[in-house]
Amino acid sequence: MTPIGLAVIGAGYWGPNLVRNAMATPELRLEWLCDLDEARARAVLGRYTTVRPTASYERVLEDPAVAAVAVATPARTHFELVRAALDAGKHVLVEKPLTPTLAEGAKLVALAEERGRVLMLDHTFCYTPVVERIRELIRSGEVGDVQFVDSVRINLGLVQQDVDVLWDLAPHDLSILDYVLPPGVVPVAVAAHASDPIGAGRPCLAYLTLWLSSGAIAHVHVNWLSPTKIRTTVIGGSRRTIVWDDVNPAQRLAVYDRGVDLSAAGEDERHAALISYRTGDVVVPALPEREALRGVMGEFAAAIREGRAPRTDGRSGLRVLALLEAAQESIRSDGRRIDLGGYTR
Amino acid sequence: MTPIGLAVIGAGYWGPNLVRNAMATPELRLEWLCDLDEARARAVLGRYTTVRPTASYERVLEDPAVAAVAVATPARTHFELVRAALDAGKHVLVEKPLTPTLAEGAKLVALAEERGRVLMLDHTFCYTPVVERIRELIRSGEVGDVQFVDSVRINLGLVQQDVDVLWDLAPHDLSILDYVLPPGVVPVAVAAHASDPIGAGRPCLAYLTLWLSSGAIAHVHVNWLSPTKIRTTVIGGSRRTIVWDDVNPAQRLAVYDRGVDLSAAGEDERHAALISYRTGDVVVPALPEREALRGVMGEFAAAIREGRAPRTDGRSGLRVLALLEAAQESIRSDGRRIDLGGYTR
Amino acid sequence: MTPIGLAVIGAGYWGPNLVRNAMATPELRLEWLCDLDEARARAVLGRYTTVRPTASYERVLEDPAVAAVAVATPARTHFELVRAALDAGKHVLVEKPLTPTLAEGAKLVALAEERGRVLMLDHTFCYTPVVERIRELIRSGEVGDVQFVDSVRINLGLVQQDVDVLWDLAPHDLSILDYVLPPGVVPVAVAAHASDPIGAGRPCLAYLTLWLSSGAIAHVHVNWLSPTKIRTTVIGGSRRTIVWDDVNPAQRLAVYDRGVDLSAAGEDERHAALISYRTGDVVVPALPEREALRGVMGEFAAAIREGRAPRTDGRSGLRVLALLEAAQESIRSDGRRIDLGGYTR
Amino acid sequence: MTPIGLAVIGAGYWGPNLVRNAMATPELRLEWLCDLDEARARAVLGRYTTVRPTASYERVLEDPAVAAVAVATPARTHFELVRAALDAGKHVLVEKPLTPTLAEGAKLVALAEERGRVLMLDHTFCYTPVVERIRELIRSGEVGDVQFVDSVRINLGLVQQDVDVLWDLAPHDLSILDYVLPPGVVPVAVAAHASDPIGAGRPCLAYLTLWLSSGAIAHVHVNWLSPTKIRTTVIGGSRRTIVWDDVNPAQRLAVYDRGVDLSAAGEDERHAALISYRTGDVVVPALPEREALRGVMGEFAAAIREGRAPRTDGRSGLRVLALLEAAQESIRSDGRRIDLGGYTR
């Protein structure tokens, strides 16, 4: 089978990773690396490459050898770039967040459907072995009911020019949540607080509380100012609790058979002596080590080939946008609870 | 000097620790261990003791050899027990929270002042070497302005009968905050969310956001349902950031000279390129290993002897109660921001 | 049943722990704490005790209420103290090492047998839940053949007056090994190197290599000069590998189903391509938290009561002494391999 | 300046890393990747390269555009490949160990000197920021006298076909030691024990003890069978102790101001009470994150350009070989101490 011709758009922070992984994916054929600064694209490609750098997005879109583009430019440029690509009949892989507003994102999703083109979000974490396993553990019932989720993603992060910490980091947690929660469990409301203690002009730390349709709450802490890097997600279940510590490669995932049990009993006495503790073993599953972006590229190629929606399609991007917009509104109104409307799975 | 005669009230979870530390404090003379269940008091004291067990609080209060009592009973009993002790002219050390309501607490503080007796809160953590050092680091200016505080206190905790997780665990974080924040920086509002995902009849996990008078926010996560124990407080400052990891005795405290700096510049361009990163060394200060409760007992004895307010006096207890009540009100109203009234330092 | 009357001898570093645990053991009745420095014994007992301090060992041995003694004095005094106790008809629990020489130790073991008295070694670690579990894992076959043992016990240790690091720390590792190795697997030779880099007058760090009868080797590193505390034992097996990290209470024991396999094959090609890797799960067994010395006291009382040899009897002490003496001889002769004679299980 | 033409020889485990780093080094121009299996070389280079794959070493050596080769083939092939390259007038960078015997290595070093060509060892760790810093800390006197070195390098390693664990892993520790020890401090003797508990046909774990000219000892543990990865080196000094934990990127290097001090005093009493303990702070220096192989490539190019010996020249390779041969001899003779002859710095 002929590989699918691809162009990567954007040679900044993330673009080089797309380039490297596209080059390692047999189903793709990387044709161009496009950046407004052609010298930068050239430098990323290096001295030994047959891939062409260019500053002209038009040239890329006109190239019939290019069937798909992967967009890794600042979020504010996504709408125009993705629209142009879809209009030119290209399939599109785009960095998160899809667009700076839900309204724009919805237009792109509609356009992609109209044009019959794949629109895929690079929700990279959904392609890691650890998140796959977490999804399995939840869907198979091994975890039991999800009782709470607590996610911390903090480190000394790049204070960005065009996004705040909410839009920069929370999409990871929200897209992971979207991917692993069991069918039928969706966020129904959100409250958020944020702070810009260094005067950067935009929030550098934020806390989100999500109410889920099951009654449980999920909480997310994102922070650009922490000198230590913490990436820990705890998913408490009625049968098992999952602890995912992403900065500990020796024990990235641990499944605890420890918890608090509540025995069923007559209503009157139920709060009396019927709580008990389980102190069971912990299992650290063996996980393959592979680069998630390789999986992203593979899924993008497969979705194009098979004419189907990818695992992290445009609609998953809209669900994330809906949460981000509601969180932003909550931040503006002192942490008020904002109910989510439609964009739930 | 004759030691101060002391009775410990309550032989449950915490009482034995008070007994052991009182016995090791030369300035005190432990006379009684009092519990409604005298057999329990007897068992705690063991077979080799000269300390007397009793089930009669009256007997303790009537004993002229007893100048002070240390109360470690359920919170709902504090008001009556402390009031009786003060009325009997005893000095009182009491477990947190002082009382289940701010109004009751305020009455006790007023009574102690009226009677000229010491009323001290057992805010144990304020007597640990690590919290002392954190206070010094902040007060000396070494940390710079406090930009954010994030505190996590989670583990598989005892689901209690008469208090929820907020009233059980958050007093630790709130009393520490009360102790280490620089003069003039006080909480002005609070929002909180809580959840009871196991149907225990009371919240088992809670999140608090505190707005400080300086504009910074402090966040507290308390949770009884986590199979892993995490006790980490990060205090981000303009010059240094403190990471206190209380479950890592080899490195309980770390002071990071890493952060994000914002250079002063003309307004227009301030958000442009003026953010820079410091990647400095980390210092792990040598800290003495000593039991905090020993310090509590020493301070209690010294305050009595010197006729002065102890370091964690009744008023510090009221400030914690004010925060707990406001948090509770916020939980009841979907996380609404609740402004604090008077009880700030 | 009347409790067994006990005296603790030695109020130094370890004695207070024996006192505390004896007091908590219902089968024992602590009568005396004996130390040449009676004031020290008095201080250890505290102001609230009914236990008597004394400086007179004679008085202890003459007391008919005393049926057993627990000796926690410097090693050089063990021989005389234990002999006197056995001669007085007392049962004896003694700190490791049993005596400074194998010859003396053998005399005491013979004497105890002659007198029909219990002589027990305080090989404390053999009474920890983790060592019990390791023994089970090995004896049940779950680990498979023991392929190697590597034990590291280093920290900033007290440079002792009468013992070097070999005699101070290695008895722990050697007694654990003695306890957990499967029946029929015994050390047959030892080589050791040691060093006194600070001019302390005795070795402050040492390395031991033990050849086991199975062909495997065990290695022990003991060191008083390390600023970090490491207490890790790895036991590699043909089916599972055990990692015991004693300074990590959250994960003291981990059982790895990861390793290198060698498939059976024709001799010629066996070293070719038949090595494969297993990357299985890791299991962290739930272990109870209990103080090992409580188990030591219980076993001592039970052995006396039942007239049987305790789990860590005098002969286990001799096996450890035989290894220590051989290691010492090896150190003196530049690390030469020293074959062990008789004292193997 | 024209870049130096380079060919990488060997497209196995390490070759791709040399390729990647050579391509990123402006002073070099990668011309060929040579492997007996040309398809493998082609696969390593990928579909987008201008670098040529070849199976012909002759063709590489005949190419006048090639001024230097980097050899990453099995150790048993090094002698012939390096000799041919030097004979062809090429500069050579070679993987460790230089050759399987000291005699062969010495011939290559002599040949390189005769031909006036650079012969450099890829002692990669010597080009890491952490080893550079350790060297500085020792040479500047900050550590004081080196009192002991303990190095552990264990993990589930590839059981190799042509080298045992000693020759595979110990060169890292020995070359690092060679690099960081202060001038005048050299190994003078070595003893070693090894074991092949899985029947792999060659040692899979080994322990080395090195006696240094200063009187201190250094110890190395290498092991292919450990399910956990440990890479820790402790360098104990009279003033500071260094702990390098290479699997902990958040705290790779820690400098402890903790230790045991021995005060000078009259001979008689020196072992009495003159030992004291320091419990000082720990400093975790900020270290840049950069790939060591980049530094290797840069040094190789600079040495060629400047006509000077590289930092890890052929003689450093010989010193490592001398230690490996002596260790091997010791293993064969039950751990006997083997004195080193000439090849010391």
Describe the structure.
The structure is a homotetramer of 345-residue chains. In chain A, strand 9 and strand 10 form a beta hairpin. Chain A has 2 domains: 4-123 and 293-312, Rossmann fold; 126-289 and 322-339, Dihydrodipicolinate Reductase, domain 2 (2-Layer Sandwich), CATH 3.30.360.10. In chain A, helix 5 packs antiparallel against helix 9. Chain A is of the alpha/beta class and 345 residues long. Helix content of chain A is 31%, strand content 30%. At the A-B interface, strand 7, strand 8, strand 9, strand 10 and strand 11 of A face strand 7, strand 8, strand 9, strand 10 and strand 11 of B.
Keywords:
globular, homotetramer, 2 domains, 345 residues, alpha/beta, 9 helices, 31% helix, Dihydrodipicolinate Reductase, domain 2, nine-stranded mixed β-sheet
